[in-house]
Amino acid sequence: MTAKPEIFTRKASGLVRVMSPYSAFVYNILTMGLIFPWTYLWAPGALPGGKLVWGILLAMVIEIPIAFVYVWLSTALPRSGGDYVFQSRVFGGGLAFTVVMSGFVIWILQWVALSGWLVSYLGFAPLFLGLGATMGNATFSTWGVWFTTAQGIVIVSILNALLSMWLLTSGFKNYVKFQHVMWWGTLLCFVTVFVVLFTTPASQFVTRLNAFAVASGGAPNFYETAVAAVKAAGIDLHPPFSLMATLLVAPIAWTSLQWATYSSQQNGEIKDARSFKSQTFIMVGSLVATGILLALLAVGIQRVAPPEFLTVAGAGYWSLIGEANINGFNLWPPIIAVALAASPLVVLIISIGYLLNGFQIVCNCYIGMTRVLVAMSLDRLLPEWFSKVNERLHTPVNAHLAYFLASIPVILAYNLVPGWVGLTLGVTFGCGYVFVITCISGALLPYRAKELYEASPGAKYKLGNMPMITVLGVLGGILGILMVLAFLFAPQLGVLGTWSLANPWPQVIAFGIILISWIWYVLAKRAQKSKGINVDFAFKEIPPE
Fold first, then answer.
1. What is the pLDDT of residues 267-318, one digit of tens each?
2. Measured between alpha carbons, how far is residue 149 from residues 105, 145, 313, 494 in Å?
3. Reduced to 3 states, what is the DSSP secondary structure of residue 234?
C-alpha cells in the first residue's frame, strides 16, 4: 500500500518566537516609515486646498477598524504568513494565493527598490549635502549630488538589499537586537526634526533656507525664485480650502499608515501572539502613535514656514518645477530641518536616522515576504525548497536568497527604465486589495471557520448578537475599498486615473500580475494533484507552528 502524503511539507515550521510585543510595536512604526512622510510633498502638489493635518488624521481613523480585524485574526491564527494564512483558512487557497502573491510578494519587490532610493536619496545625499553646506566643503556637496544619480542609487540599493539579507539570514534574533539601534536612531532623528521645526523663529525661515541653498551650490534668493517660478506656472500659491482635496489626502497618508498590521506576517515569531491585549498594542497602538506624530509634523512645518511653502515644495515634486528644488533635490522635511539648523551635529543625527529607517524598510520587505513564501510552501503551493528553515539559525535562508535575487532586476528597472518609478503607486493599489480581502475574511471567519473562531480569544466580543470581527471586517472592508478606488480613479493619485491609450502599461502590469498569480496557483495545484496530494486539505487546518 502507498502511504498517504502529509498535508503539510513538514510538521513544524522551524521558526521560533524571538520578538517581544514591544519589538513588534516598534517594528510596525518603523515599517510605516515614520520619517519618510512623502505626504508633505505629494499632497500639496497634487491636491491644492487640501488640509494635511486633517487628511492624515482621517487616514488614521480609517485604518483603525482594519487594524482591529488583524488583531482578531492574529489571535485566532498566530502563525507566520499573515494575510495568506488568514485568507486561505477562510476562502481557500485559490483566492488567497492569487491575492497575496500578486498584491504583496510581487508588488513589494518595488518597495525593496524604493528602500534603496530612500537610503541613497534621503539618507546619504542629505548627509553629504548638509555637511558640505555647514562645513563649507565642496567635495561633500559633490558626493551628496552623486547619491541622487541613477548610478549612485543603484549601487546603494543593491548593497542595501545584500546587507539586509546577510543580517536576516544570520538569525531573526540578530535583526531584533539591531532593531533597537534602528529604533532609537530613528526616534532621535524625528525628535530633532521636531525640535528644529518648533523652535526656529518663523522670521528666519526664508533667510536660512536661502543660505543653505547657496552653500549647497544653488542660486542666491532661492526661495523668492522658487515662488516666482511656481506663480509663472499658473499654480495658485494660496488655494482655497477644498473638502474633496482634504479627503484625498487620506489615501496618500494611508500609503504609510496601512502598514500598522504588517507584523502579522511573522506572527509565528512573536511572543504572546495569541494575546488580544498584546496584538492591540502592537497594531492599533503603533497606528495611533504614528498617525499623531505625522500630523504633528505637519503642524510643525506649517508653524515655521510661510503659508505658501508647502505649495512651492509640492510644485517641485509634483509639477517638476526645477526652481522649487535645491540643486535638483526636493524639499523633504529632513532637508528643511537641516537647512534651518545649519549644524553639522543636526545633519549627522537626521541623516543617520534616515539611513537606519531606510535600511529597516528593506528588512521588513524581506521579513514579511519570506514568511509568506514559507507559508505557501508549507501548504505545497511553492516548492518545498522555499520553506526550508536553517535548524541552527531558525531563519528561511532559501526564501531570503530567492527574494534578494528577484529584487535585483526591479532595482535596475526602478532607477534606469524611464517611467518605472511611477509604478510605485501600484504598490498601494496591490497591497490595498490585500488588506480589503483580509478584512472580508475576518468578517466571514465566524461563519466559514466557526471552530477556529470560537476557540480564539476574540470570540467573546460581540455587538448584540453579531461578532465584533464581522462588524469591523465589513466596516474596514468598505473603507479599504474606498482607498483602493481612490488610487484607481483619482487622477491625482494614480493607477487608472491617469490611464491613456498612449500609456496603458501601468494598468496592464497591475492586472497582468493578478492573472499570472492565478495561473501560478492553478499549475501548482495540478502539479500536487498529479502526485496524489489534494492541497485543499491544508486550508482546513491550522499551519504548523
1. 999 999 999 999 999 999 999 999 999 999 989 999 999 999 999 998 988 8
2. 28, 7, 20, 25
3. coil
Describe the chain by its helix, strand, coil percentages, rounded to 5.
Answer: 75, 0, 25
Q: How many CB atoms lie within 10 A of CB 392?
A: 7
**SS3 state of residue 220:** coil
CA gap 305, 205 in Å, rounded: 6
Q: In b/e form, how buried is each residue of 445-473, taking b as 16+ CB within 10 angstroms?
A: bbeebeebbeebbbbeeeeeeebbbbbbb
Task: Please calculate the CA angle 123-125-129 and round it to the nearest 5 degrees.
Answer: 125
Give the span between the Cα atoms of 367 and 165, in whole angstroms: 9
Are 346 and 196 contacting, i.e. CB atoms less than 8 angstroms apart?
A: yes
- Distance separating the N- and C-terminal Cα atoms of the chain: 30
d(C-alpha 243, C-alpha 261), whole Å: 28
Angle between helices 286-304 and 309-318 (to 10 degrees): 110
Non-local (6+) Cβ contacts of 345 within 8 A are none
Q: How far apart are CA 149 and CA 26, in angstroms?
A: 32
pLDDT, tens digit, for every residue of 73-129? 999 999 999 999 999 999 999 999 999 999 999 999 988 998 898 899 888 887 888
Q: Which residues contact 197 (CB under 8 A, 6 or more apart)?
A: 297, 300, 301, 303, 304, 333, 336, 337, 340
d(CA 17, CA 96): 25
Which cell numbers hold the place of 320? 517638476
pLDDT digits (tens, 9 = 90+) for 199-238: 999 999 999 999 988 887 777 899 999 999 999 999 999 9
Residues 6+ apart with CB under 8 A from 344: 130, 131, 134, 135
Three cell numbers written together for 32: 510605516
